[in-house]
Amino acid sequence: MKTTYNRVTPEIVASLRQIVGQDGVLTTPEALEPYSHDETVGLSAPPEVAVRVTSAQQVAQVLRLAQRQRVPVTPRGAGYGLSGGAVPLHGGIVLSMERMTNILEIDRENLMVTVEPGVITGELHRAVEAEGLFYPPDPASLDSCTIGGNVAEGAGGPRAIKYGTTRDYVCGLEAVLPSGQIINCGGKLVKNVTGYSLVQLLIGSEGTLAVVTKIILRLLPLPKVQVDLLVPFDHFQAAANTVSDIIGHRILPTTIEFMEQDSILAVERLLKKDLPYATAAAQLLIQLDGNTQAAVEADMELVGDICLEHGAHDVLVAKDRPTRDRLWEARRMIIDALNHESPVNHMEDVVVPRAVIHHLLKGIKEIALDHDVRIVNFGHAGDGNVHVNVLKDELADEDWAALVPVITEEIYRLALSLGGTITGEHGIGATRRRYLPMALDGAQIELMRRLRDLFDPNQVLNPGKIFP
Ligand SMILES: Cc1cc2nc3c(=O)[nH]c(=O)nc-3n(C[C@H](O)[C@H](O)[C@H](O)COP(=O)(O)OP(=O)(O)OC[C@H]3O[C@@H](n4cnc5c(N)ncnc54)[C@H](O)[C@@H]3O)c2cc1C
């Protein structure tokens, strides 16, 4: 069934101004431009109006109005998504959470923090760390993206291997249903098996089931000691064997990131400076943490020895914050560097069981050779999640347009054949929805559609996302 939507009329704009105030509503093309895209290359669609809400009650009023008028609503955090989730494909209203930026409570006794959805994830980190507490999920975009966007995407990050993803920390949510009803699910509870978990259903629902307006997150005590190791290898296979061996020695690092040489060289060219070990075929960036210097150093020695046994050229250790930040600089700059080098590019986010990640990378190299195209890989070796970047470089526009779907399918087929799936942390959004049937069978997609229809029979909330 094809849903049709109405346009945003001057009367609707006037009603929106009554709800959120004059300066909360944006309507000019220049003001709306930033709300027409996220960080997905080559995807944009302008909204007819953007509304900057400050409370759940305002969200509820906007949704009720949108239901009455059959106007689509696209929730938006910071627009740092990589699958087009916040792009208003059908126009209508963008519902921006940028003014809901309060950290409402840091509850030291219960190890919980309560936040509004527009809080920038990095600011949340700093606020709880100042109290000796720790919120582990750390998407590489953390200084720009919002915690609401992280919940809606089920965001991951480098620390997933040891600490899990956003999903593992959300204990309670206040959310506004597409009907305008406000619900509170979960709470400051580490255990809760009261009925189906609506909290878990809303996490990763990409703004299609409800708008999240308050989030209760579990915290941990902040580990007292952290060290980072940068380790260069001649072959990725050696790096992959090292990862298995480290875990085999009963050490679970906080992160095990990998970077192929091409990604380091791209960052060198962007920053116009030499980076360590840029001649190595692959690098691992390993972080260890713990509560005593002695315990962390013992792990560090063992991990260093294991790396050298597997043929690492060297092990560069960073213990203090500035040196550690320098080691992470290259990793955090890769996406910017690749965008700079080939502004037209295509990024995939496949995930496979950790133990077969080298098969995935080998297969991707073969795909690149078959199509004579540059593919640069980096990502989370610790959890099998690879960011695959296909670069257009000098390819003609029509050849590129024909190549992207073919290569995407080949990468997905490869990941699925290895027991993986098509996205580990960036979501289906707009860009992957046509491929959903490759990863999920018809029965599952139908069940998900029926769930969406139950929440939102008129498909007012974030239409055009997830479903093929
Ligand atoms: C350089 C870079 C590095 C990145 N690294 C990582 C990484 O390591 N790990 C990772 O997981 N992701 C990563 N991402 C992707 C991205 O940052 C995450 O998906 C992040 O969660 C998006 O948050 P946002 O606030 O920008 O959300 P947006 O892009 O604004 O929105 C994302 C989705 O969430 C919905 N949404 C937003 N807020 C709400 C709300 N309050 N209620 C309901 N729905 C809502 C939107 O409708 C949309 O579908 C990276 C992106 C970039 C550009």
How would you describe this structure in keywords?
468 residues, 36% helix, five-stranded antiparallel beta sheet, seven-stranded antiparallel beta sheet, single chain, 18 strands, alpha+beta
Written account of the structure:
This protein is of the alpha+beta class and 468 residues long. Helices cover 36% and strands 20% of the residues. The chain contains 15 helices and 18 strands. It has a 7-stranded antiparallel sheet, with helices on both faces. A 5-stranded antiparallel sheet has the order 5-6-10-8-9. The chain has a 4-stranded mixed sheet with strand order 1-2-4-3. Strand 5 (103-107) and strand 6 (112-115) form a beta hairpin. Helix 9 (261-271) packs across helix 11 and helix 12 (357-371) packs antiparallel against helix 13 (397-417). The protein is globular and about 70 Å long. The two termini are 12 Å apart. The mean pLDDT is 96. The structure holds flavin-adenine dinucleotide.
